[in-house]
Amino acid sequence: MKLAKKYISALLFCGILSTLLYIASDSICAIVYPGYSYTSQAISELSAIGSPTASLWAYLLLPFSPLIILFGIGVFLSNKKRRLRVSGILLSLFGISGYAWWFFPMNMRGNIGSASDTGHLIMSAITVLLLTLILAFGSGAGGKKFRIYSILTILTMLFFGSLVGMMAPAVAAEEPTPWMGIYERISVFSPMIWMSVLAIILMKKEKNKVSK
């Protein structure tokens, strides 16, 4: 039984690793990309068609989806609460959906308008929906404070995501997009950090189960 609990903790730790991997990959590619502006350019531009960091981004993020899938399994197995189990299932679906992004990279600024760009926007909408549901169902994992934190994270993700969405026409027209990079990173990183917090909470609960 104790060995099984350790396996669950290892699965939950994948949530923390996925967050660190994504943020680190974003930083590395932003540094390597000549002339890239971390504050005013979108994350997707690092993996855009023709981007000098497209291949690097793909290699660095290769373990991301498997880590999220494993994390989702860990969340599902760690608790018998129905809402948390639903969150675990949705997390694994989120991880699986990551593979679909490979088929819909955006084009470089000034060349946007293809079917791939349309698919990219659809994938963004699906991702936001999945993350909103993941946070909503998983909000009961750590009491009232974690529930409030979850709600604030959802609002943060949606608010800054909407700011990025309003700048999409400027990206297509190859116009300046000041602070777009910061807005998007707040929108993207906030739910990822939430996942790490969820992982820590559930890992502590698993540790308590083992010690009893």
Notes on the structure:
α1 runs antiparallel to α3, α5 (115-138) packs antiparallel against α6 (143-166) and α6 (143-166) runs antiparallel to α8. It contains 8 helices and no strands. It is elongated. It has 212 residues and is mainly alpha-helical. The mean pLDDT is 93. It has one domain.
Secondary-structure blueprint:
Layout: H1 2-32, H2 54-60, H3 64-78, H4 82-97, H5 115-138, H6 143-166, H7 168-172, H8 180-211
Helix pairs in contact: 1-3, 1-8, 3-4, 4-5, 5-6, 6-8
Share of helical residues: over 70%
User: Which spans have pLDDT < 50 for at least 5 consecutive residues?
Assistant: none
Overall 3D form: elongated
Number of domains: 1
Summarize model confidence as the mean pLDDT.
93
Order of helices and strands: HHHHHHHH
- N- and C-termini, Cα separation: 12 Å
* Beta-strand residue percentage: under 5%
The number of helical elements comes to 8
Summarize this structure as a short list of keywords or feature phrases.
single chain, about 210 residues, mainly alpha, about 0% strand, elongated
Quick structural overview:
The protein is mostly helical and 212 residues long. The chain has 8 helices and no strands. It has one domain.
